[in-house]
Amino acid sequence: MSNNTLTIVVPCFNEEEVLPETTKELGQILTDLMSKGKISEASKILFVNDGSKDKTWEIISDYCTKFNYVAGIKFSRNYGHQNALIAGMTTANDYSDMVITIDADLQDDVNAIPEMVDKYLEGYDVVYGVRNSRETDTVFKRKTALAYYSIMGKLGVKLVPNSADYRLLSKRATSSLLQYKEHNLFLRGMVPLVGYRSTKVYYARKERYAGESKYPLKKMMNFAFDGITSFSVAPIHLIMNLGILIVLVSLIMMIYVLVRKGMGDVVTGWSSLMVSIWFVGGVQLISISMIGEYVGKVFSEVKQRPRYVIEEDKFTPKAREEHKK
Ligand code: UDP
Ligand code: MG
Predict the structure, then answer these.
(1) Which of 12, 261, 267, 298 gives 20 to 30 Å between its CA and that of 309?
(2) What is the CATH number of the domain that holds 72?
């Protein structure tokens, strides 16, 4: 295989409005890099159609026949952004030396791609795309994002601030990432765990080129919560600490109640009730959280479901053909 084959993985969910422009801009970057000899002629854009309901797959199929550097895979249904990225990387990695992932909507500046490739050629395995401004995001999104990074930091999850899923990974970094078999995917948290030499490339985040966000608030909140629960057992520890605190309070209550009883000014039955409510409540919270600890571990391990199902693959045959040459 020729050296330095790049595959740009682009997840697409109902993106018919942006696809022509995205293909044009990415194609331009790709052919530029090829003519400069920085990447091989076998480099490609790999669109992952994540169960789109519109003409997305028709457009991708059409481009696959028109352009040699366009390929696509089609999911059997919508599996979500993170799974689309994993599928793209899995499919691409056999025939690529580096993989770049980028959203279809051109919010991430495609001009950072040549810089990422340069960093790869300098010997970096992981190149994060980091936005240096969030002016085009709403105040709400900016504030919540900031709060989220700080919470995640306190929970001990290392994230690269202001970087999303726009990044370059070398072949070995991709392979290592793909060995993480968890199903609650939170890729931006997983990539730093992979290690290797990494660096950042800065760019300005733009407005969506066309169409509307495929991440409504509910999807965004689910994703954020997934990020916490699949990376940290801190919430369970919190419950346990609460339980311990309540048991301690119950001990103080016990002393207080005994003193009052000694003074003889209480209703019959009050003392024993007060003590047991607090004590038993605390013991129950601790016990539940202990069980939760184990259930949480089982939960993340046991669901050995496939992360996605590919219905049609227009990438592998193309790549294999070129591989033979
Ligand atoms: N996307 C996807 N599957 C989904 C939702 C989104 O593949 O279920 C893709 C979408 O087509 C886009 C990327 O994920 O390429 C990011 O989505 P979007 O731009 O709508 O999110 P935002 O930038 O608003 O957070
Ligand atoms: Mg977007």
Answers:
(1) 298
(2) 3.90.550.10
pTM across the whole model: 0.73
Q: Are residues 194 and 239 located together in one domain of the fold?
A: no
Characterize 44-61 residue by residue with b for buried, 16 or more Cβ atoms within 10 angstroms of its Cβ, and e for exposed: bbbbbbbbbeeebbebbb
Task: Report the alpha-carbon angle 63-65-67, nearest 5.
Answer: 60
Do 175 and 192 have their domain in common? yes
Question: Virtual CA dihedral for 298, 304, 306, 307, nearest 10 degrees?
Answer: 20
Hey, whose CA ends up nearest to atom 8 of ligand 1? 80
Statement to judge: residues 171 and 261 lie in one domain: no
Contact 16, 54 (CB under 8 A): yes
Same-domain check for residues 253 and 288? yes
E strands, 16-69, are: 44-49
Distance 218 CA to ligand 1 centre (A): 13
Ligand nearest to the CA of 10: 1
Find the 116 Cα to ligand 1 centroid distance in Å. 22
104 pocket-lining for ligand 1 (C-beta < 6 Å): yes
Instruction: Indicate which atom in ligand 1 lies nearest the CA of residue 213.
Output: 20
Containing structural domain, residue 52: 6-138+163-214+310-324
Q: What is the pLDDT of residue 1?
A: 45
**Bridge partners for 272 per DSSP:** none
> Where residue 307 falls among pLDDT bands split at 50, 70, 90?
confident
DSSP assignments along 199-251, one per residue? EEEEEE----SSS--S--HHHHHHHHHHHHHTT--HHHHHHHHHHHHHHHHHH
Kindly report the protein residue whose alpha carbon is nearest to atom 2 of ligand 1: 81
My answer on whether 316 and 294 are in the same domain is no
> Hey, which residues does 203 pair with through a beta bridge?
131
Distance CA 162, CA 185 (A): 18
Among candidate residues 199, 196, 197, the one with its CA nearest the CA of residue 163: 199
